[in-house]
Structures are given as C-alpha cells and as structure tokens.
Design the sequence.
C-alpha cells in the first residue's frame, strides 16, 4: 500500500484553482519529488498532505489516515520542515532540539543529527542570531528529530551554500536508507535528479508528468544534445530538416542541436557529405532542466528560472 495517496485533489483560493485535480501515490521508502514553476500549486498540495490545509474536494491519505480528521495520528508518523516564523527568536539551537525531541515517543539522538547538519558549534546560539542557512539546517533537524516514517521537505536546500547543500543531500540519502519516505518539493533540478526516485511535475495546478528523472528526460522532445563548431557554414534549411530535431541554436559560430540519436547520426552524415569538420564535437544527454522547460511549456519558462 502506498504511504501517501492523493486522489483528484482540488483547492481554490477566492474561486481561483490553485490545485486542480492532482493525483499521485508515494510508495514506502521512496524519495518522491514535487517539481514545478512558481505558483504551480506545490506547497498547497503538500500542505494538504500535512493536514495544514483542507482540500475543497478529493482524497488525501497518509498511511491510510485522513491528515485533517486524524491530524494527531498523522503528526506522529509525518515530520515536516517548519516555516521560519514558527520558532522563538530567543530559543537556542540546543533548546529547540530538546524541546522538539520531547514531543515524540521515540526521538532520534539529537547530538549526531546536529553534528551531521553542522550545527554542533551553534548549540548555544539563539535562533534569532542564526544565518538563513543555519536556520534552514535547524528546520531539517527538527523535521527529522521525531524519527518519522515520512518526512515532507519544502524547499529543502534553498538558502544553503553549495557545500551545505551537498551535505544535506547526503543526509537525505542516509534518511532514506533507514526506510523513511521523503516527499520533497524543490526548484533545484540537480537536487531532483540526484535524490528523487520519481518526480511529479506540477504545472498550473495539474500533474504535467510523473516519472523517474531519467524517464522525464527521455520523454522530453530533445533528449540528446549535440554541439560543434563547423569548419565551414552549414545550410540552415538542411539543419532544420534533420530527423527528430527539437531545436537548433547558433552562438559564436557554434551550433547546438537537440534531438535524438537519430538526429546525431544524421548530422554526422550531413557533415561528411559536405566535407565539413566538426571542431570540439560534444554529444550529451539532456538534463532534467531541459525536460522541465519542455514539460511546463513556454509560458512558464521565465517563472521556472
Ligand atoms: N493562502 C492563500 N490565499 C490565496 N491564494 C493563495 C494562498 N496560498 C497560495 N495561493 C495561490 O495559489 C497558487 C498556488 O500557490 P502554491 O504556494 O501552492 O504554489 P507553489 O507551486 O508552491 O509556488 P512556489 O514555488 O512559488 O512556492 C498561487 O497562485 C498562489 O498565489
């Protein structure tokens, strides 16, 4: 049985749909990503899973329980990252960890958790004096302290420097190794690609695609990218006629084509036919970034970056 089930979830604000028929199921032990442009309905969706918002219609189940009607029981199995305003400025890091540990029947030992999140040197620092990244790390610790079966992390590494981000990814991988299910809302493609087993791409309140990161990349139009600097100009019409071509870009004499393996073979044949040499030829797989822009359409491109 899935540990989280969302079926035809709908939620409007002042008559405007923010979530418009979202369905997905998260299996035990999975890292499930929710990805989408700003305002797509991601936070509303996960807050319905946490029982913090009441859906207009649809069904949400967490370990078979209704997060609104069975809020107390759901809170025992689900750890959620807090919003900044929820902690007192005068509370020290140690006090916050001890306080939250006391809420749960079998909390984790907060010492190693604080160590893993680089908070040991900050135990006596008051919350109000922490940097944005340190606060973020404390919220992650507090989400995990109750040793939950499921953890919901919204914008996990926003505000963290690259080092802290990588340490946090390792921590999340450790958490999953212990069998914890992770529901992760993120804007970072690299994070989603590295951590998530499956991703629901949400766009305009609906699920635009649901697949593994590799599956999302494969289904986007230009899943292979070839770039090179030709030794002589190539005919634009011939380039545009290449099979399975998704896009052509020219920059500083360099040509970048997105397509499939078929496009790559055809361009190599084209180059040979015209006796044109391709300097600095590179062939690479498209990234999740490319797939995301493709799946969420042109209108949302600007909001996504
Ligand atoms: N409490 C609220 N009252 C009115 N409108 C809201 C409320 N919360 C969210 N919205 C609107 O609902 C839509 C979806 O918001 P939501 O926060 O769920 O999106 P999101 O995908 O999490 O966005 P972001 O990536 O920017 O955090 C947005 O248009 C937002 O303005």
Sequence:
């Amino acid at each position: 049985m899935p540990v989280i089930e969302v079926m035809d979830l709908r939620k409007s604000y002042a008559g405007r749909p923010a979530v418009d028929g979202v369905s997905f199921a998260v299996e035990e032990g999975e890292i499930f990503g929710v990805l989408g442009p700003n305002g797509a309905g991601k936070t509303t969706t996960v807050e319905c899973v946490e029982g913090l918002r009441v859906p207009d219609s649809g069904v949400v189940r967490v370990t078979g329980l209704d997060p609104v009607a069975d809020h107390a029981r759901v809170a025992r199995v689900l750890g959620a990252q807090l919003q900044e305003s929820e902690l007192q400025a005068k509370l020290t890091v140690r006090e916050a960890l001890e306080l939250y540990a006391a809420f749960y029947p079998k909390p984790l030992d907060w010492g190693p958790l604080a160590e893993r999140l680089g908070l040991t040197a900050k135990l006596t620092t008051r919350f109000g004096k922490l940097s944005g990244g340190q606060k973020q790390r404390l919220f992650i610790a507090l989400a995990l302290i109750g040793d939950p079966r499921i953890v919901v992390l919204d914008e996990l590494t926003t505000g963290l420097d690259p080092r802290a981000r990588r340490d946090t990814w390792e921590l999340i991988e450790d958490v999953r190794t212990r069998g914890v299910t992770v529901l992760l809302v993120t804007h970072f493609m690299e994070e989603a690609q590295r951590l998530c087993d499956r991703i629901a791409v949400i766009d305009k309140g609906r699920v635009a695609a649901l697949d593994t990161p590799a599956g999302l990349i494969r289904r986007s139009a230009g899943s292979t990218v070839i770039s090179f600097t030709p030794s002589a100009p190539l005919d634009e019409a011939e380039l545009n006629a290449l099979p399975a071509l998704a896009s052509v870009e020219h920059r500083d004499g360099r040509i970048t084509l997105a397509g499939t393996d078929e496009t790559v073979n055809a361009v190599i044949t084209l180059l040979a036919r015209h006796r044109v040499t391709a300097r600095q030829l590179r062939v690479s797989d498209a990234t999740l970034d490319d797939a995301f822009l493709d799946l969420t359409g042109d209108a949302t491109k600007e909001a996504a970056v």
Observations:
- Residues 13, 18, 36, 38-44 surround adenosine-5'-triphosphate (CB under 6 Å).
- The first helix runs from residue 42 to 50.
